[in-house]
Amino acid sequence: MLPGGPVSGGGGRGGRLCLLRWLGLRLWSRRGTLVFALLWFGSWLFLNGLVLVHRSIMSDYCTDDKSKRILQRLCLEFGKGSVTGDMCEDLCVLGLVEYKRCLYYENGKKVIEARWRGSPIILKSKLENFSSYEPLGILDYQDTAEELSPLDVVFYATLEVRNSLGLAEEDEDEEGGGGGGGGNNGSLARLWGKKLKNRDKSYSRAELASLWSLLQQEEYTFLRVLQDLSTHVAKVLGSCGHFYAVEYLSAGHAWDQNIFSLEEVAVPGLRGQDRAGARGRWTTREMVHRIALSFLDMVWHFDNDFTHKLHLCDIKPENFAIRKDLTVVAIDVDMAFFEPKMRDILDQNCSSDDDCNFFDCSSRCNLSKRRCSPRRRNSNLQVICEKIFRPWFSPTLLGAKAGLPLQVELQRAVQECSETDGGAEEREEDGGGGAGIHQRLLNILNRLLHEGRASGEGGAAWEEKGHVHTALNF
To answer: What is the pTM of this model?
Structure first.
């Protein structure tokens, strides 16, 4: 008999009520216990997740104290003879590298602003500590490491460069083939390798270890290989251990209508003019036209002047800067890929075209094969027209000058460029030649330069002669 249950007759209804109350109490009690347990477990997960996120954020939080400690550890490594480089002595002994501030930490990458012998530089490393990089295996054998010839160093370095840039040996050896590059400059890795051989004696263990840590950083490898081939990438000035220094350039900003700080640059032919009057306002517009021409020069250069086409998959103002001569420079190349690696990235499973987008690089989905085409369908020029030129040359910013014939022609060309898959390459392959969208933009901008009469030069990009960091002077 259940507790409180009736014995007979007229108590049946009351007995059923008692039974229902008893069952309801038991069910509520179990449900309440379950809800309490779930709430407690959920709170525990939330608090632990909060602590984990906080620790993760704080561990990668950019502070001056932490940056200085990182550089102090680097100098300790140099003092022990574990690392070396052409700026180590200036940094650790002579005090010629002056720390300025921490710029940012991102996914382990450390970026620091400093001054080296009076000139501003940016110090970078993909990882915080030298010990975090994979060592060169050959250094485990003392005798073998000391007997490495410069030619051996070239061999190991070239293999690492190929691996980092995604260039297979057979791809590199094809002159102007493989993926749309028009250059006949031979192997990118081999071009740098030739410089590594210009040495009479063998490399020390510290030199080899430092070189190996640098070659494991894709951005360093990319910039280093292109140093003698392009004025449109940031210059590597020196290194110490796993940190390398690049020229300091002020990055662009989306919130600035001119993108770049034009007050900081000096253009031949513009000095001495009155910037306060109407002539000064036209000078600013003229500078924008020159920068646009440098963007066009960069695009043509990246598309045609290397063994393989170079794709920029993250195009935004913050990833570019200008030198004082208005040359456009790519300063963040973490998302830049040569054609073979670009094809590997795009070649993936898909169910629609949306699955074939890799940041600013995209291809089409073959629905029958459910596979993305490895060939990029848009171009560097198209994305630059969309994200850089269109805001620059919009009627809103041009104001009353937006209705001028050349400005209208420029706006139409930019609009067409940003909406046409394949950009300049496909149109010129169709026989457009001078009528190709790249050539049209070039012609219009040069006519605007001529019309402005702000400078006697034709608007082509200037080349900067020479740079400090050479061969294996890390």
So the answer is: 0.76
Structure tokens at 54: 């906080």
Q: What is the spatial distance between Cα 229 and Cα 419, in angstroms, rounded to a whole number? A: 31
Query: Is the pLDDT reported for residue 149 higher than 50?
Result: yes
Looking up tokens 């290397």 gives: 306
Confidence label for 272 from pLDDT (cuts 50, 70 and 90): very low
Indicate the average pLDDT of the chain. Answer: 79
372-406 pLDDT per residue, tens: 999 999 999 999 999 999 988 888 766 667 678 99
**Residue pair 361/375 in contact by the 8 Å Cβ criterion:** no
Helix (H, G, I), strand (E, B) or coil at 357: strand
DSSP code string of 87-132: THHHHHTS--EEEEEEEEEETTEEEEEEEETTEEEEEEESSS-GGG
Give me the half-sphere count of Cα atoms (radius 13 Å) on the Cβ side of residue 179: 27
β-bridge partners, 330 = 233, 320
Q: What angle do CA 183, 185, 188 make, to 5 degrees?
A: 110
CA 208 to chain CA mean position, Å? 26
Q: Could you identify the residue written with the tokens 């970026």?
A: 111
**Those residues with Cβ within 8 angstroms of residue 339's Cβ, 6 or more apart along the chain or in another chain:** 178, 179, 180, 181, 308, 309, 310, 311
Between the CA of residue 234 and those of 32, 63, 219, 222, 248, what are the distances in Å? 64, 25, 10, 10, 9
- Other C-beta atoms closer than 10 Å to the C-beta of 392 total 20
448/393 Cα distance (integer angstroms):
12
End-to-end Cα spacing for the chain? 91
User: Where are the alpha helices (H) located in 227-346, listed in sequence order?
Assistant: 278-304, 339-346
Angstrom distance (rounded) from CA 376 to CA 161: 24
